[in-house]
Amino acid sequence: MYINRTNTELIEILNQESLLTFESQLKLKEEIQKRDISVDLAPLETSISNKLSQIKNLEYLKDFGFQAEDTQDGIVVTRTNKAKFTDVIAMVLGVIVFLIGVYGCVNLVMTFINGEELDVFTLAYKFAIAGMVFVGIGFFSGLKRLFDYTGFELSSKQGVITLKKRFDVNLEETVAKASDVFIDSHDDVLFLRLGDQIIFTSNADNLVQTLTIKELAKKLKTV
Q1: Which residues cross the membrane (predicted)?
Q2: Do both 151 and 217 map to the same domain?
Q3: Which of 39, 104, 135, 197 has an alpha carbon within 20 to 30 A of 118's alpha carbon?
Q4: Does one domain contain both 50 and 71?
Q5: Which whole number is the average pLDDT over 196-200?
Q6: Which tens digit of pLDDT belongs to each residue from 66-76?
């Protein structure tokens, strides 16, 4: 990432380290140390240390809509209220946009049936409105998440893992051993699994999310 940068450029980037991703910060530190550049790395190291601490405390679970709470007996993971609210808003917006798109489709069809003469811009506008059907369908992913994770709870207590999650329609409870928790990946998706069940997924290309999932799996197995 930084191998083709000059020492001066690396120092300039270092001065803006707070704007970098966690992975970029790590690679920047590695490149500076490899070249033995005489520069103060304290701010960069502090930033990296803070992020590692947040990863260890599972604070980044909120990035994909979950939160972890330590209990006397173990750990409990639930869906955040913010994530639930976001899914509801996405669902409502999806319905509104979808209905606008349906109206646009009907209007477009009637335009051709009635043989109306339209200029290019008006026709393009009508097609754009009709195309909002597909945009609305995209918003419905919020409805799926809201349904899938209503009642969701993942807990670990004395080596016993309990997962409450909707599969198909019913809210099901799966009880398994801590050893049944593992991480799997496919393409750019990281899966946290309990036996055959998928607990949730994250972006495998995102280092912070990957380390957070690994830390969660570690805590589930050790508490």
Answers
A1: 88-113, 125-143
A2: yes
A3: 135
A4: no
A5: 88
A6: 999 988 888 99
